[in-house]
Amino acid sequence: MEFQYLESFYTTVKYKSISKAAAALHLTQPGLSLQLKSLENEMGSQLLVRSNKGVHLTEEGKVVYNYAVTMLSLKGNVKRDLQSLQENSNKLLIGSCRSVGEYALPCSVYLFKKFYTDVEIQIKLMSSHEVIQKLMDHTINLGIVQDLPLPEEITTKTIMTDELVLVGKNAVEGEISLDELKKLPLILREEGSATRQLLQRALAEKGLGVEQLNVIYNLESPGAIKSSISAGDGFSFLPRLILKKDLKEGTLNPIKVQGLNVTFNYNIAYRKNVVLSECEKNFAEFIHSGRRGFC
Questions:
Q1: How is domain 87-160+265-288 classified at the architecture level of CATH?
Q2: I need a labelling partner for 29 at 20 to 30 A (CA). Which of 16, 122, 129, 237 fits?
Q3: pLDDT below 70 — which residues of the chain?
Q4: What is the model's pTM?
Q5: 161-264 adopts what CATH topology?
Q6: Rounded Cα–Cα distance for residues 43 and 169 (Å)
Q7: What is the spatial distance between Cα 106 and Cα 121, in angstroms, rounded to a whole number?
C-alpha cells in the first residue's frame, strides 16, 4: 500500500473536497483522483462518495480512514524519533492555548526541566482551535486547550478547572445585572476563540448575544487584553488563572454578573492513536501531577 495514496485519501477526507485537497497537496485534481481510485481498487471497495457538494466517506471508507489516521501517525512518529536519535537529543514540542501558555505553563516547564534536564522544550502559543488543527496535521503530538468541540480523532484529559471573571481597573466590587453588563465597554477575545465561545454559550443560556454587548474592540492575546484593562481602557472576561496576581494585589477588581457563571476546563489533548515518545509521556504525566506548579 502506498503511503502517498493514504495521505491523499486522508487529506481529501479532511477538506471534504478533491479540489481543496489537491491544492493542499500541490497535485492536479486528475492526479489526485487517480490516486484515490488506485487506493479504492487496491481495497476492493468504494471509499468516497463524490458529488458536486464535495466528498464523504462510505462505511468502508470510514474503516480505511481510521487505519489511515493510525498509520500516518505512526509514520510521523517514526520520522520524528529517528531524527531525534540522529540529532542525539530529546525534543518536546507543545502547542498551548495562550491563557495557559503565556502564564502558567512556563513555571511547569521550568520544574519539568529540573527532573528531565536533557529535554529540549519548545512551546508554541496559539488558539485552542489552532492547537487541535496542529494535532490533526501531525505537526504536534501534545496540546493544551480549553473546552471546545473535538474531532473524533482527538482525546483529552482534564488538567484543571477554571472560570471566566469579569474584571476592570478601579471597578467597584459587587454584583451587576445583565442589563448593566450591556452598558460596560468590553474588550473581548477574537471571534472563534475558545474563550469567546465559552462566553457566548453562557450568555445565550441567559437569552443574550454578544452583539447586544458594548464591545469596543477584540484582541487575540489575553495578555494584551489585560494590559488594556489595566490601563483603564475597559472591562473584560478573562480566565482566573491569569488574574491571580492582579486580584491578589487589587490592581484589577472582579465584578459578579447576576446568574452568569462561566466555568471550563484546561485539558491536555492528543490524537487517540498517537504513539508518544518517552519525553512526551513524561510531560503528559507531569502536567497531570501535583508537581506541575502552575504559576
A1: 3-Layer(aba) Sandwich (3.40)
A2: 129
A3: 77, 80-89, 295
A4: 0.69
A5: D-Maltodextrin-Binding Protein; domain 2 (3.40.190)
A6: 63
A7: 11
